[in-house]
Amino acid sequence: xxxxxxxxxxxxxxxxxxxxxxxxxxxxxxxxxxxxxxxxxxxxxxxxxxxxxxxxxxxxxxxxxxxxxxxxxxxxxxxxxxxxxxxxxxxxxxxxxxxxxxxxxxxxxxxxxxxxxxxxxxxxxxxxxxxxxxxxxxxxxxxxxxxxxxxxxxxxxxxxxxxxxxxxxxxxxxxxxxxxxxxxxxxxxxxxxxxxxxxxxxxx
Length: 204
What we know:
Elements: H1 2-11, H2 22-56, E1 60-62, E2 70-72, E3 79-81, E4 90-91, E5 94-96, E6 100-104, E7 108-112, E8 127-132, E9 143-145, E10 148-154, E11 160-166, E12 169-175, H3 183-191, E13 194-195
Antiparallel strand pairs: 1-2, 3-5, 4-13, 6-7, 7-8, 8-12, 9-10, 10-11, 11-12
Transmembrane segments: 41-61
Keywords: Membrane, Transmembrane, Transmembrane helix
């Protein structure tokens, strides 16, 4: 039994010899503890960053001044008051932020980005407003514009089309799918549209 105890005693490492400077030993101990705390904090922060990124997925986290990040949904467009020159045929109260009235003729008003140089008859990447004569075969209403029945539908190419009666005509507003207004915003845009005497219903 004594042999076992002796062998265990020989395996146990001797305590480190003090340096003789207790103040220096204490300082080194505090420094080592500080390093461990900083490492744990850094690892915890990295884990939190990964957790936030995974939770929000396609939502961008932005911060302008280093404060708490603001959550900002991707691909959203605001409607803003329009204070530019109005076009013959229609007047508008609001436009998507960053958009302008590209032009109009007696049949169509085009709302586009400022750098869009295409013809107003090219409806891609725009909101366009036209008039139609009532056909009598309209879809069932599923929303309202200024309290009047209206229909929101999606076209085969993914655009959104809003139709509603206006005087003796049907107003048709088509929004290309690259603009990303919500249905509610498109209705809000429509409620700010006025048709003037210069507008004519499209033919064919």
